[in-house]
Amino acid sequence: MSFNIAVCIKPVPDPSHYDKITIHPVNKTITREGIPTIINPVDKNAIEAALQVKEKWGGKVTVITMAPPSAEENLREALAMGADEAVLLTDRAFAGADTWATSYTLAQGLNKIGHFDLIFTGTESADGATSQVPAQLAQWLKIAHLWNVQQFKITNKEELQAQMKIENGYIEYALKLPALLAVSRECNKPRYTTIMGVMKAKKKPLITYTADDLDLNKDFIGLKGSPTQPGDIYTPELGRKGQELTGEVEEIVAQLIQKLRAAGLNLESWNACAVGRE
């Protein structure tokens, strides 16, 4: 018994370069040019989950992403972790996609590759953090899905059991395969890449598909096909207003007390002498 497994990952901006992220003034999308990317941290848990299934049951792990061409480096890292092949969906037409358009494009990419018994994702991305893509992707593919999975066990070729983490515990589910699991950080500890893994990754297949290679409705992709459209972006005024108080010391103190009370400060309950001693 073996499984055909897919893992959806997302390259996200390197946290050490967050200060360089800007918003495009016209289309209101994040400007990522020139900013290094890393694999979304919890997506590495998804890769690890897929690799553990492969090691126990056999099969193949395919990693897929929708991203600019620079994401090839991130896919090579996933291959170095142990994935068998990688697929990059890249096209200017995909740019600016919201979660709905992103999940649609990923679904069409997965359909292009073939049938999968299991699909893994992370619970959320470090940049968007909407947690919407896993469920939307499963809906496009018409398969069962669970979010925030902290533990799972495959019982046979047709079924698995999983624990979905909730605020004060977890809920146990049984799912028929094929299924999609969005795993949490508690699910496992991702393995590190090795020198041997990096060397092997260079020889593993990495396939690139553009919009023209996929069977998709181009009205459903990119910024144009996104139901969620950004509104106005503005910088709030954070300046402080200063006011000069004049007069003798007693007069200034009286004015200050009056203004503090007008601002809602309960001076009667504030022991200035006690505060000073502290």
UniProtKB/TrEMBL annotation:
InterPro entries: ETF_a/b_N, ETF_b, ETF_beta_N, Rossmann-like_a/b/a_fold. Pfam families: ETF. Signal peptide: none annotated. Residues 27-218 form the Electron transfer flavoprotein alpha/beta-subunit N-terminal domain. GO terms for molecular function: electron transfer activity. This is Electron transfer flavoprotein small subunit. It comes from Thermanaerosceptrum fracticalcis.
